[in-house]
Amino acid sequence: MTSDTLRYAPAPGRFDEVIDADGTTRPAWQAVARALGSFEPDVLLERRRQADRLLDAQGTGHLVHEISLATDRHGVSAAQRSVSHPWRLDPVPFVLEADEFRRLAEGATQRMRVLDAMLADCYGERRLVADGVVPPSLLHSTPSFRNQTVAASGRAPWLVHYAVDLVRDAAGVWHVVHDLTDAPSGLGYSLLNRTVLARVLPDGLRTLGVAAVNDHADVLRRALAASAPAGRTSPRSVVLTAGPGDPTYVEHSYLATRLGLHLVEAADVVMRAGRLWLRVLDGLEPIDVVYRRVNDTRLDPLEPGHLGGGSGVPGIVWGADGGGVTLANAYGSGLVESPAVAPYVAEAGRHLLGEFLSLPLLADGAPLATSPVFAGNQAFPFVSCPVVLRLQLTRVGDEIVVMPGGTGRVLAPDDQPSRPTAQVVKDVWVIGAGQRQRPVVVSAPPQVDFGGSVPKRVADALYWMGRAAERSEVATRAARVVTAQLLQDPTLAEVADGAWAGGAVALLRAAQAAPSLLPLDGPAATERLQPELDATCIAAAAQLAAMVQEATSVREYLSTTTGRVLGRLARIHPLLAGAASQADDLDTVLVDLAALSGLMMESTVRGPSWRFLDLGRRLERALAVLGAVEAALAPAVPPFAQQPLADAVLGANESLVAYRRRYRSEVDFHAVLDLLLRDDANPRSLAYQLDRLREHAAGLAWSDGAALVEQASVQALAPIADQVVNGRIVALDAFVLGVRAPLLELAQAIVQRWFADPVNPMLVRGH
Amino acid sequence: MSTRFRVVHRTVYEYGHPMADGFTTAHLRPRTTPWQTVISADLVVDPAPDELDHTIDAFGNPVTRFAVHHAHASLDVASTVVVDVVLQPVPAESPSWDSVVDIAARARGELAVEVGPYLAHTASTPCDPGLAALVDLEFTPGRSVVDAVRGLCGRIFADFLFDAGFSDVTTPLDAVLHARRGVCQDFAHVACAALRSIGLPARYVSGYIETAPPPGEQKLVGVDASHAWCAVWAGECGWIDFDPTNDQMPPQRHVTVGWGRDYDDVAPVRGVVIGPGGGQTLSVSVDVVSENRQ
Question: Which structural domain, as residue segments, surrounds residue B79?
Answer without folding.
Answer: 2-86+267-293
